[in-house]
Design brief:
- The chain has about 230 residues and is α/β, with parallel strands linked by helices.
- It has one domain: Decaprenyl diphosphate synthase-like (Undecaprenyl pyrophosphate synthetase), CATH 3.40.1180.
- The chain is built from nine helices and five strands.
- The strands form two sheets. Strands 1-3-2 form a three-stranded parallel beta sheet, with helices on both faces. Strands 4-5 form a two-stranded parallel sheet.
- It starts with 5 loop residues before the first helix and ends in an 8-residue tail after the last helix.
- GO terms for molecular function: transferase activity.
- It is an enzyme of class 2 (transferase).
Length: about 230
Amino acid sequence: MIVDGNRRWAKERMLETAAHGHRAGAAKIREFLVWCDDLGIKVVTLYLLSADNLTNRDNGELDALVEIIAELADDLSRSRDWRVQHVGSVDGLPVPLVEALSAAESSTASHTGLHVNLAVGYGGRREIVDALRSIVRQHGEGGGTIDDLAEVLTPEMIADHLYTGGQPDPDLVIRTSGEQRLSDFMLWQSAHSEFYFVEAYYPDLREVDFLRAVRDFANRHRRYGS
């Protein structure tokens, strides 16, 4: 889920700050995850804060958003039997947010319910670069050379070193607010995903909108690039 439209939602309602929209979005996330859990969905990834957002957002808005995400991570870690995982880089993230994400991960590590990925400080291109760096570093520590690595490097190896290593690729990517682009989200993992775009801003997302997306997905014939 690419969570989009929170700021525009607040602006259209003439609310004082974008933070009102982000808080409404956070409240909707809790509701949305219950819908997913009740349908038996196993893994959900929420795109909350891109790496680009860290440099192109107003400082006041960013500070508020960081606080909201930290509160959300703590809240989700106490919900049902959900397992929370941070996917993204900690570079540039405020220490309190990193600590909140880490605490949510640690406290839910043994949970076996819905797996909730929080994409924070996330960038798809950066993720692929980080994966390759990890592979090169690991290979070098084992005494291998770059030439050796070139002979054994596979897509599966790269996938294992992504932030989502060990998880299935997403079947369906949903974006709210009417925008129809990926915005650097899960570039590698979504190679064969289906896409669904919702006109509603994220805080206005209804369960019927979500169920329509799921029904539309169920009716598609997946071709996996063929």
